[in-house]
């Protein structure tokens, strides 16, 4: 009778979640054993940094490696996945993470099951029985390369970050198989050890890899701020106001918005700023912009939801968070400029000969035809947990798919959109999303930028930005699916700025200087923002309001940033002239009174020009 390998420690730790009995191949050699010993020893060296499950697994690996070699050469019992909990309720299966609001950016376990279940929606499809050990066909010596994937800061300089990340991803794929496009994007952009946003200081601007609208000129941020103040007037709200920005970049947009808010009389005691930023490197850059680098990090032993805190020169409090769920609840203005385009997406394909909506997921695999480490895209032969979720999620909503054969879907965008909708409905406020995107007419938009040029997204991961066009059709659906919020738009950026009389602001700035070169720079910058062949049509804006205010806002004669309404009324009629109480309407009617704070912006000779300290 062949002896069996006992795994009491592993079984005790994982309980009903997972039961693994390791199958050791008959021809196990010393290199395999040493590799397993290395993994167990390395895991145990992290001590308290690992959870109980991982500690138990590492102990199990060590004890397994110390078995007599004669025992290991014999046939071991087959892997057993029990108890079968696929159809059992959560309370019975004793899942470690039941219906909680899981953060999509954290790995709650090294188990493949929990990696697949970073969003709540997938919990109902998971049976928590996916083995954590690599398949038998994998060379187990590749397990040792998993050490490169840890997010602990290196003790010594690791050399070229993108090369290190490529090696780490290569080792991970060798050990566990192909990874999703979303996993690849997350590692490339946000890996604290070697990710793009974690290691590069000059990602924005002319010296970086790409440029955002706020960096082109102050007009953009000022007009966004004026729009926010105009919408705020509709709520007749005079309490504490939270300004929340997702992905603040260099902090330029928030800097311009705060300048305008202060000029319109919003006191520092009434405003607090909450910035959601994953990258500690960008948090530092934002602190330098907004509070002269005087922000301080939250001590590790202090239990606070924010990771950094500071104060602007005018005394406005700023706090940084890594997840929007950590931001306090309250009446909020939520801004997201070029945020959703950087969220990881899953890519699904529907084969041309299939009549039904059976979707296969695109994965990232090792490229065997090129020198290592290099990667390629492949299509899964069977359904993945995410493709199952996608099919179930959009069952009966074929109008969103529009007969597309390839779709990019961000489940993280769905989770964040639902959070925004809940906030504006339950606590009041509104939001504005600004990004380049489409309404369902594009299918393959994943690309990479390096030094303002297109770059192979699979080449030198971590050295270039990864981005996708935002599918505003999906985003609107995510925001409105529970009828907590309603949206207006999307509209083109150029149309938005023109409707907000951006041309008048441009002339005001140009008249404030006699420097012809500076005037030319202002003109070129505004053309970049509004020209249809540049950013004017590629970038779009989507506004978000509580669903309870839909009837009021739709019947109001105040500013509704949806130019479709303007076109339906009269294409020849100026948008601002339709309004009775809009400051730009007052500007056009040559109203000279300055009793209303909005009219401060209408004075083309001074006012905001005095605080126009940001140059193009």
From TrEMBL:
<dbReference type="GO" id="GO:0005739">
    <property type="term" value="C:mitochondrion"/>
</dbReference>
<keyword id="KW-0489">Methyltransferase</keyword>
<dbReference type="GO" id="GO:0032981">
    <property type="term" value="P:mitochondrial respiratory chain complex I assembly"/>
</dbReference>
<dbReference type="InterPro" id="IPR003788">
    <property type="entry name" value="NDUFAF7"/>
</dbReference>
<dbReference type="GO" id="GO:0005272">
    <property type="term" value="F:sodium channel activity"/>
</dbReference>
<dbReference type="InterPro" id="IPR038375">
    <property type="entry name" value="NDUFAF7_sf"/>
</dbReference>
<keyword id="KW-0808">Transferase</keyword>
<protein>
    <recommendedName>
        <fullName>type II protein arginine methyltransferase</fullName>
        <ecNumber>2.1.1.320</ecNumber>
    </recommendedName>
</protein>
<keyword id="KW-0496">Mitochondrion</keyword>
<dbReference type="GO" id="GO:0016020">
    <property type="term" value="C:membrane"/>
</dbReference>
<comment type="similarity">
    <text>Belongs to the NDUFAF7 family.</text>
</comment>
<dbReference type="Pfam" id="PF02636">
    <property type="entry name" value="Methyltransf_28"/>
</dbReference>
<dbReference type="GO" id="GO:0032259">
    <property type="term" value="P:methylation"/>
</dbReference>
<dbReference type="GO" id="GO:0035243">
    <property type="term" value="F:protein-arginine omega-N symmetric methyltransferase activity"/>
</dbReference>
<dbReference type="InterPro" id="IPR029063">
    <property type="entry name" value="SAM-dependent_MTases_sf"/>
</dbReference>
